[in-house]
Amino acid sequence: MKKYSLFSLARNAFSHHQNWQPAWRNPEPKPAYDVLIVGGGGHGLATAYYLAKEHGISNVAVLEKGWIGGGNTGRNTTIVRSNYLWDEAAQLYEKSLQLWEGLSQDINYNVMFSQRGVFNLAHTLQDVRDVQRRVHANLLNGVDSEWVPVDRLKQMIPILNVSSDARYPVLGASLQRRGGVARHDAVAWGFARAADARGVDIIQNCEVTGIRREGGQVVGVDTTRGAISARKIGVVTAGNSSVLAAMADLRFPIDSHPLQALVSEPLKPILDTVVMSNAVHGYVSQSDKGELVIGAGIDAYTGYGQRGSPHIIEGNLAAIKELFPMFSRVRMLRQWGGIVDTCPDACPIISKTPVSGLYFNCGWGTGGFKATPGSGWVFAHTIARDQPHSLNAPFSLERFVTGHLIDEHGAAGVAH
Amino acid sequence: MTQPRRLPQGGRIDRSRELAFSFNGRPLQGYAGDTLAAALLANDVRLVARSFKYHRPRGIVGAGAEEPNALLQLGGGGHTLPHQRATQVELYAGLEAVSVNGWPSLEFDLMAINSRLAGLLPAGFYYKTFMWPQRFWGRYEHQIRRAAGLGRAPMEADPDRYDKTHVHCDVLIAGGGPAGLAAALAAGRSGARVILADEQAEFGGGLLGSREQLDGRPATDWVKAAVAELRGLPEVRMLPRSTVFGYYDHNLLTIAERVTDHLPPGISAGPRQRLWRVRAGRVVIAAGAIERPLVFGNNDRPGVMQASAVSTYLNRYAVAPGRAAAVFTNNDSAYRSALDLLDAGVEVAAVVDVRLRVDGELPARVRAAGIAVHSGYALVDVQGGKRVEGARLMALDSDGRGFSSAYPVGLRCDLIAMSGGWSPAVHLHSQSGGKPRFDETLAAFVPGTSCQAEVSVGAARGCFDLSGCLQEGFEAGAAAARAQGFEARPGAPMPAAVIIAQAPMMPMWRVPSWRGVKGPKQFVDFQNDTSAADIALAAREGYRSVEHVKRYTALGFGTDQGKLGNINGMAILAETLGQDIPSTGTTTFRPPYTPVSIGTLVGRTVGDLFDPLRKTAIHEWHVEHGAEFENVGQWKRPWYYPRQGESLDQAVYRECLAARRTVGVMDASTLGKIDVRGPDAAEFLNRVYTNGWTKLGVGRCRYGLMLGEDGMVMDDGVTARLADDHYYMTTTTGGAAHVMGWLERWLQTEWPDLKVYLTSVTDQWATVAVVGPQSRGVLAALCQDIDFAAEAFPFMAFREGTVAGVAARVFRISFSGELSYEINVPADYGRHVWEAVMAAGAAFDITPYGTESMHVLRAEKGFIIVGQDTDGSVTPDDLGMSWILAKNKDYLGRRSLLRPDSVRTDRKQMVGLKTLQPGFVLPEGAQLVDDPDAAKPVPMLGHVTSSYHSPCLGRSIALALIRNGRQRHGDVVYAPLSDGRIVRAEICDPVFYDPEGARQNV
Ligand SMILES: Cc1cc2nc3c(=O)[nH]c(=O)nc-3n(C[C@H](O)[C@H](O)[C@H](O)COP(=O)(O)OP(=O)(O)OC[C@H]3O[C@@H](n4cnc5c(N)ncnc54)[C@H](O)[C@@H]3O)c2cc1C
Question: Which of A234, A359, B96, B941 lies 20 to 30 Å (CA to CA) from residue B526?
């Protein structure tokens, strides 16, 4: 891999950028691999990268039905934080946040991880209790977190409407300063490039259509580009996970819902942090390009169409206008949806399955982008060792049998 | 001279109404009927913007929604609008427009240095650098952010209003050009309900900017007649200034109508904009086509315009955007512009046509007019900086990929009218779910198979002759109406246009670069400074999917959404990768077609209308008596009633003691109430509640817990049996709607065999809770037909009677542990009864209390509040409520209670907590630990769910969920607070007051 740097940019400028190498090769699939990763989203690519980097397993292919990063990775609103309530979740997301903190350097690709802070607003007395509970828990878990009373909030985000006359007045917020946003495409591309450099084959336009098993052991997949064998297969297909599970005759407690987001036209800097509100249902940050990046909760109906209903967007924007009345005259530029895989307890499944050699990493629902590096890291461990890392052990499929759920709903509502 | 580029006559402007406006502070004049862009061009303003990345000077390119450059900030203060497209802004008197990029000024922009550094800033450069040192990214990013962005957001709340309208129609027609008007006439005449929406102020579409003839008269005469006829049809609704911007499932379309944007701000002539949500039977898309630019060296100089835009400025606005023009084309349509220029008195230096053979009818006319036509040539470079000063052309080789001449020759001109062919506006078709298909002859994407009840007609389908547009529009309109059950009715036939044969175009996605990689930049996406070389670079670096290229180079990410550049970009990518355009594909067309104000999408749901605000029938009394309110769900509930100078704590202290010592009164109307009726009602309750309901006698009440399927506590409340087959259920205030939905879901989807009918009656009843030792006296004073004696009306019973003259249901239940009665009356009598209670209670100094005191009173008794003491992870047993779990029947959630994790004995359990310092009230949400000094992550035992100062106990009390808590009464645990303090508290029984429950049974 030729290193990226200011110097390489300057050097290449002399040759009019004619000599850059492809960020990743575009190989034909081989007939067999040690490990197949199904799904070329951020999580799948990160898994391949850490398999190669941490476990020395590089005879790996990532099979992506479309273009890498084209699923939720390239559709999400990129909020990164680790201030989850429950110990298990906080530890997992915190591991991920720590990986984010050195990621650009580690994979030599600027993922523009921008720690501009994440505020979670409280609008009712019960919100205040919940937020403070989470702040206390975060601190004891070693996750940075603070309670910001409303007067200080006003100083920190002067354009936020904290009027007590609001329909649901802001009563305060939690702040995680280490939280922020990152450039989603760059995460997919950076992991792809770094994994490719370690020998991983990134294979696009290759849809998995069947999972082959023999006597309870996986032996390969059927794809639109032919059969490929492997005795270890990690499936990371987000909104399509139930479809893939069915290929192995498995059923997961996952619902697939549309989740929508939108951006405004680009503006000069006006908001330099991330503001989220579960109570009024909206969150917003401003991208480096100047667009306000806005999202809300899922569409209630299940489905696989990557589009939602317009009234969700209208309600979402009403919340944004409540919080930032001046954004009313700003215009929505683009609106889209992704399909998110939601679990009953709003936590992921990173797990072995009843089929030996078949692993699933899914159920991240509305909030898995932030987990991308951490998810890949623990999933690589799970695949390489055939047993979960202690960080993801609590997120096994068994929890739906034992009842040991990690219910982040109450605490996270809109769990981005 | 004012308006130097205005033609002496012609155009659709109103020369009798001169309008003063300003651009970057410079006062200028235009006419009514101008767009801002037309008025700027009339004043010979060429430079209107600086580009996003390189800060190159930019001018107006188009005349409509596709304009990438002329984005101007309008107005000031709360009325300001960031980067509006000047080509779509109607001029009004006093309009103030300023450029959005360029520092210190548009003319002299220091950031233009970026242009010099362009070599270092290829597509995606930021992914390759700014990584060292790690902690510096924030600083780099700060600079990047400052450079990015177009306009400025207002700093004040929006002073304008917005509306929404929901309508059904038989036929919605998007676009009011010839095809759309014809469709509207056909459908409208048949009597169908028609909506015709067009983004422009006037109907007529492309005809407004052309000199076409129909039936031998100017086509605009026909437009006028058609519009007049349509206005006369009662079922036809004409929506000018209305953009159909979204196409969703089941033929739901959204339209943004700009109602008053064309008027100076502050004039209150109605809402600023209106959102139409239209459910259409059939949709006819007549949205026209967009002319493509050509990609050649320095094609972004101010003065390089779409040929059709040049014609529009000449014909519609009587503005000549230059003095000497060169026309650069790969098709016949631009020859019209050459003729338009010529006839307007503008010199046409030459027509440069990439086609080797040019023999169509229009070119013949141009040649006949004495204009040089250079066929087989291409423009390779544009000279000039802030305005075009000339161009250079070279002869192409036979396949158009290289040159047959060695050096370019110059051409003097200050305007370049370019045409790279036409792209049908497939946006709405695509949003509807259709997949556009590539048409090789047109070299354009055209609508594919329809997925919904829609059809595209006219230029939007790739039909570029006027007669054809009228014909297919008319037929589509008639067919759509017929499909909706309306028969065609006679009317004037469609007029005839002069048919001019058009020679085929020659795709030319990118003019070869005459100096190879060293040649001048060839822009594909003007707004995002994406060049042909950027696209080639992306492909070289492995970003081969069109979506990757889009994201890597920002192609089509601008506020024009790639209306101009995308197709060229995709074709250049296809060429680079050596594949065809169909297999390269398009990026997805997403709503909205053009940007829509957030305010428009929000409509009136702002402020108090943001969410329905629910008030009880007694609300005004609370307001009059100084209550502070708390939001609970959508309800406003009295939180406490401070007397003069009282704090929350003082008021609560007084209120709680009153309820414990004499009598208090609380408005409990917000509790959810569901009327449950039917022969299977008891069985139904048995299934949804954990306890048994069959044996509950008529006239009795019972407390019930509902669990989710996961076995966790979901809601609770008291239900009374009014008759054998009739129950009155209450739920929590916040959970009412959810419970109603939950119950209906089970009834409708799982237990359709049960004969049970549910009715939400929350709003029908007002509930006055009279609480305290003296409550019996108050009730007795108000109600003669119920015997309130303890034995006659025991605890957990209900009676019907007349309270203060109103038929009432009185429940003897208690959420405070005191003797108490809840009087339910029809909501209209709520305030009357409340006031009667106040009057009757005056003798006992009756005290109204709010939710805060209610919380304290119930916490003293260890009663839970679902949602505060539970969080979706708490079982009944965790709350010490196994007594409410029936053993001999099934109920929702029961199975989950048998799971290994649910039967663990060391689960978090509800306990009481007493701080060792009795005056200290623990913060709710504090976490509890055994060892506050342990290393992080510190093992946590649980948390404080409720915490108060208890007036009657004279100390603080708290409820908490603690691991294995029931076994740990007497242990001391620690609460490390976020401010660093560590508080010690002893675990105790959660019932702090009257553990035997004697007081409610008196
Ligand atoms: C609108 C929106 C906003 C969001 N906002 C946030 C946020 O702010 N913060 C946050 O943390 N999270 C957010 N999320 C969630 C986050 O995007 C996802 O949890 C995360 O990106 C999932 O990553 P992934 O790699 O698992 O999935 P994806 O990126 O979806 O990757 C899965 C891949 O599998 C491929 N695939 C599917 N089926 C097959 C098959 N049969 N064969 C081969 N390949 C297949 C898909 O094409 C896809 O590329 C948001 C999601 C959406 C939709």
Answer: B96
